[in-house]
Amino acid sequence: MTDEAPLLDVRGLVKHYPITEGFWNREAGRVRAVDGIDLSVERGEIVALVGESGCGKSTAARATLRIDEPTAGTVRFDGDDVTAYDRRQLKRFRRRAQLVFQDPDSSFDPRLSIGQSVAEPLTVHGMADRARRRRLVEGTLERVGLAASDADRYPHELSGGEKQRAALARALVTDPDLLIADEPVSALDMSVQADVLDLLTRLRDELGLGVLLVTHDLSIVRAFCDRVCVMYLGEIVESGPAEAVFDDPRHPYTRALSASVPVPDPRAPRPAADLVGDVPDAAAPPSGCRFHTRCPEVIPPADYDLEADGWRRLLRFRLRLSGQSSDVDTATATEFTDGIDGDGGDHDTPSATLRSEFDLPMRLSDDGANRILDEALESLAAGEREAASELLETEFQTVCERESPPSRSDAPDREASCHRLRDEYEAKPDEYEVH
Ligand code: SF4
Question: Which of 78, 233, 259, 320 could disulfide-link to 273, CB 3.0 to 4.6 Å?
Fold first, then answer.
């Protein structure tokens, strides 16, 4: 880090999409795709913006470049406020900050030669001299590892890797300072992915290029990125130097994502990988910590001594009962009582039948909690779903759904937002590790 202003400095960036209804297009809600994120990219640095699909990464990239106008927040580029730019300034900015798309196939017009496509940004920015355009195009194609003569080929004549190199050439031909690359290798074979990422790191080193790499693939982050920002449902939940975040993730979401990355030693202890379900709907994000509906480490209620696995299964059931779970379809009241016949099915009691049916522990580690669960299951078996749901919600509340965790920093350039970072909620050793 230097005292100089970062090349890109994003503060409190928000992008909401209104949901309208009726003849007058009355606003009925908002899709909170990006909800107040901060991130920065220095010159000569590759920063990864990581998260599952649907967490808002691509929207953040587009709002940063004002391809989609941000709802709120500031974007500073080289010290200037991009959000205040007029059209002319914006055009100049787009020459210095380029976007590379995921799918090289759809980013080329099949009727244009590679040379014509790569030259397009030069034409848009007013370079009328054809010979000069041709020289720049050939030089840029060579810089990305293609031949100058590839300018005369057509997209269908290029392999996927060659096309992605040509897409990079088109982004680089205006000599930008910043590249925002949205999943630039996810459509490519594994063998070609490393080549394209090597090329990006070489361009960073040779040209001092700043790169914001948008990706869902944590395995490429450690090898190719300097810093990482982990995004979940519109928010950055953890950020820091890539190696440190990878070696010692502070946020359960980062731990769950890294658990799915192959490691050289399969016997090494690894975080539990039970990240279930999909990213919830950004139009109705969960309360408190947005990750609480899927978090493998969600904090149990203080009043009960619940063992981690039993608590997670109880919470999943509770969320499913109230229709807040994203990992399974909300079951209907009939489905909940299906399978309980007059004599309790295969089990002695309706409660035991429901426990077996809905992956609940036959016995919770806390007697008081066990009694409450029995009571709720009996209500459910009697067809009183709302009463059952209310009882579980009142008794088994977690701080994770009540309070939004503030961002905490315990090392230079590292931040994470999780209640587990408070001493009183720290997980017990090995509580969430699998061997
Ligand atoms: S605050 Fe709670 S739900 Fe959110 S990540 Fe931390 S432990 Fe999980």
Answer: 259
Instruction: From 68, 102, 83, select the one nearest 8 (Cα to Cα).
Output: 83
Question: Is the Cβ atom of 289 under 6 angstroms away from ligand 1?
Answer: yes
Is the shortest distance between the CB of 250 and ligand 1 below 6 Å? no
Q: Residue ranges of the domains in the chain?
A: 8-257, 308-397
Q: What phi and psi values does residue 4 have, to the nearest 5 degrees?
A: -60, 150
Structure tokens at 224: 């190719």
Tens of pLDDT along 165-219? 999 999 999 999 999 999 888 877 887 888 888 889 999 999 999 999 999 888 8
356-377 pLDDT tens trace = 888 899 999 999 999 999 999 9
Beta bridge partners of 375: none
**How large is the C-alpha radius of gyration of the chain?**
26
**Token pair for 398:** 């977690």
Give the closest residue to 412 by CA, choosing from 178, 261, 244, 248: 244
**Is the minimum distance from the CB of 297 to ligand 1 under 6 angstroms?**
yes
The ligand 1 atom at the shortest distance from the C-alpha of residue 401 is 3
Note the pTM of the prediction, 2 decimals: 0.88
Closest residue CA from atom 6 of ligand 1: 418
In the CATH scheme, what is the code of domain 8-257?
3.40.50.300
Given the structure tokens 């848009």, which residue do they identify?
Answer: 124
pLDDT digits (tens, 9 = 90+) for 56-90: 999 999 999 999 999 999 999 999 999 999 999 99
